[in-house]
Amino acid sequence: MSEIHIPGLVCIDDYPDETTFCSNKNVVNSPQKEQKHQELAIANEKKWQPGQVLRIRFLDGEQQLHKIVENYAKEWLNYANLEFEFGNFADAEIRITFNGNGYSSLVGTDALKRPAPAPTMTLGEMTKATNTKLLKAVVLHEFGHAIGCVHEHSSPSVEIPWDKDKVYAYYKKLGWDKEKVDHNVLKRYTQCGINFSEHDSKSIMQYPVLEELTVGNFKIGWNTELSEIDKDFIAKVYPK
């Protein structure tokens, strides 16, 4: 099986009007002690209502690819009390394009702030021939954003020992400037507006951390499935 390197798994933080919420790459906070379980991080004010039907429209791409994405995305519904309705809805809450570069999605209800028909999720340059594991990992990750989850490596509960000089040099090769690296890689959310506890290194919302970009031997592998903590937590966020 061929190895998928981190550039194929980079998700760009996407917020309407370039606004974010309660984030600071330099802030270190302790986990909320009252929570007893490990949980992925989720933006409280960007959650949908439990039981809500989210309409999803593909703006382009192959029909066979649409079905593949739909099947992977629905895995979240085994645990979250939400419904996905795929169709050609002019005012769909979630609108997906396969044009452009990279992967991104607005977080939860931020999708309502971007007027149709502009896309709220980008699965750039994916086709039905894309590596199966890569495709599934990206779809699960981006739909995690779509239902309100934020990046696990940006959680207030984890402090990754980044070697910043190496991080900047690595992403510069991908065409990223310092500001983009700070925002998408080094940034960490503060506690306000985020529901979280201990860091879940196996979360689908955690992208790989290369050992060559950290101090010491810290690294996180490639996650391609929902973790048990992902499943447990999203079921609490959207109870049946």
Question: Which tags fit this structure?
Answer:
240 residues; alpha/beta; Collagenase (Catalytic Domain); six-stranded mixed β-sheet; two-stranded antiparallel sheet; 8 strands; globular; disordered N terminus
If you had to describe this structure to a student in words, what would you say it looks like?
The protein has 240 residues and is an alpha/beta fold. The chain has a single domain, classed as Collagenase (Catalytic Domain). It contains 5 helices and 8 strands. The chain has a 6-stranded mixed sheet, with helices on one face. Helix 1 links the parallel strand 3 (53-58) and strand 4 (83-86). Residues 1-8 and 18-39 have low confidence and may be disordered.
- Determine the mean pLDDT: 82
> Which percent range fits the helix content?
10-25%
SSE arrangement, N to C: EEEHEEEEHHHEH
Relevant CATH superfamily: Collagenase (Catalytic Domain)
